[in-house]
Amino acid sequence: MSKYKIKVLCIQVIAVLALLILWEIAAETGLINSFIFSSPSKIFTTLVDLLKSGELFNHILVTFKEVFVAFFIGTIIAFVISIIMYLNKFIADILDPFLTMLNSLPKVALGPIIIIWTGANQKSIIVMALLTNIIISIITIYNGFIHTDELKIKLFNTFKATKYQILTKLVIPANLSTIVSSLKINISLTFIGVIMGEFLVSKSGIGYIILYGTQVFNLNLVITGILILVLMSYVIYKLITVLERKYITND
């Protein structure tokens, strides 16, 4: 790790610690209402209680499973549809307005319909997450494809390359960074979709913890669940970043 990265990491850690300390002091001195805003010490106690009960890892595992399934399926479908749209402009022109409309539609409004179609189970959560992540992924990847350097495409055409060869040898390699960016957006939206789905139907998962904490007015549990979600999304984000550095930056 370079000195610059170490410096950035140290500042990030210091900033987080400073925030936690100020938060704790504000709660202890009465500057904020600790019942409503909680405090780091209360969150830590809540986390320990969840660990002792053995429930925490089960909830984390459930949410991780839903996120990974929706993320994996959504990424593959988005990539395939983006390729089809790039290879066939007629299909792209047909789908374009529908993608825009679906992207602007509040997905939570479809929740009741999804539950009726798939049942009040894990399938409905995954479908909700797919509807949340797949459209923006298609738009991001496809826009990257169609904005590939035109001079390079003309060069390939000069050598009578087929559109498939241009796609596989030029367009996809040239847009690896765009694809990775779409993955980063995808994982964020997948978490949003999964949590929305868990709010509606789940009996386990981090979304369920947050919803249950709200119902019993246990703000410590709610904020603990939110912080766990932040850590989970950070872990997956770092995994994507590692892949980006290994397979793209080195190129």
How would you describe this protein?
It is a single chain. The protein has helices at about 5-30, 35, 40-55, 55-85, 90-105, 110-120, 120-145, 150-160, 165-175, 175-200, 205-215, 220-250. The relative contact order is 0.11. With about 250 residues, it is mainly alpha-helical. It is globular and about 75 Å long. Helix 5 packs across helix 7. The chain folds into two domains: about 1-30; about 40-250, MetI-like fold. It is built from twelve helices and no strands. The two termini are about 20 Å apart. Helices cover about 85% and strands about 0% of the residues.
Helix-strand pattern: HHHHHHHHHHHH
Let me know the average pLDDT: 88
Total number of strands:
0
Count of discrete structural domains: 2
Q: Tell me the CATH superfamily of the largest domain.
A: MetI-like
SSE class? mainly alpha
Characterize the biggest β-sheet. none
- Report the span from N to C terminus: 19 Å
Helix content: over 70%
Which fold name is given in CATH as the topology of the largest domain? MetI-like fold
Give start-end ranges of low-pLDDT stretches. none
Return the CATH class of the largest domain: Mainly Alpha
Into which percentage range does the β-strand content fall? under 5%
CATH architecture of the largest domain: Orthogonal Bundle
Q: What is the alpha-carbon Rg in Å?
A: 22 Å
Summarize this entry quickly.
85% of the residues lie in helices and 0% in strands.
Blueprint of the fold:
Elements: H1 3-29, H2 34-37, H3 40-53, H4 56-87, H5 89-104, H6 111-118, H7 122-146, H8 150-158, H9 163-174, H10 176-201, H11 206-215, H12 219-249
